[in-house]
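REQUEST FORM: STRUCTURE PREDICTION
Request ID: SP-0412
Submitted by: Lab K.M.
Chain count: 1
Length (residues): 167
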Amino acid sequence: MQPRTPIALAALLTLALTGCADGTTDTAADASGTPSSSATAPTAPSSPVASTSAAPNVGDTLLVFTRTGGLAGTNDRLVVRPDGGWTLTTKSGSKEGKLTAAELAALKSTLDQVGFSKLPKVNDNSNVADGYTYSVSYGGDQVVAKDGAVPAALQPVINTLNSLLSR
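STATUS: Completed
RESULT:
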């Protein structure tokens, strides 16, 4: 039985390493759910779902909103373009849509009233268990806040953007 030990050890090591995967979904899977060969190759991600941390081109973006944490460990990212088009990326995939003219005007009005450049950039003095962490990038500024530490001026923006995430 000695010759089989290296094979069994290799199989166990492969299973252990597979179990340590980061849990992200292969967006290159075909309709049957079978992963493509790119799932095993160590290449850079090529889709917006796989590369949620990539910064969009500033000229093409009105705002970027992320919501992470909570009981379910969410990782939601909403990119809204100046024309009202939006892309929402979550753990379950991505979808696109477009705000109505009235929704876009209301969002811009709310954003303009906040005064991002005057808000503290990091607001994490919170003891809320399993709360969300929000990040809003708008007009060249980024504000990060945790539940329980969201500045009062930012709350209407967070409420509006959270409602967009539920679409």
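NOTES: The helical segments are 4-19, 101-114, 155-165.
Reviewed by: T.R.
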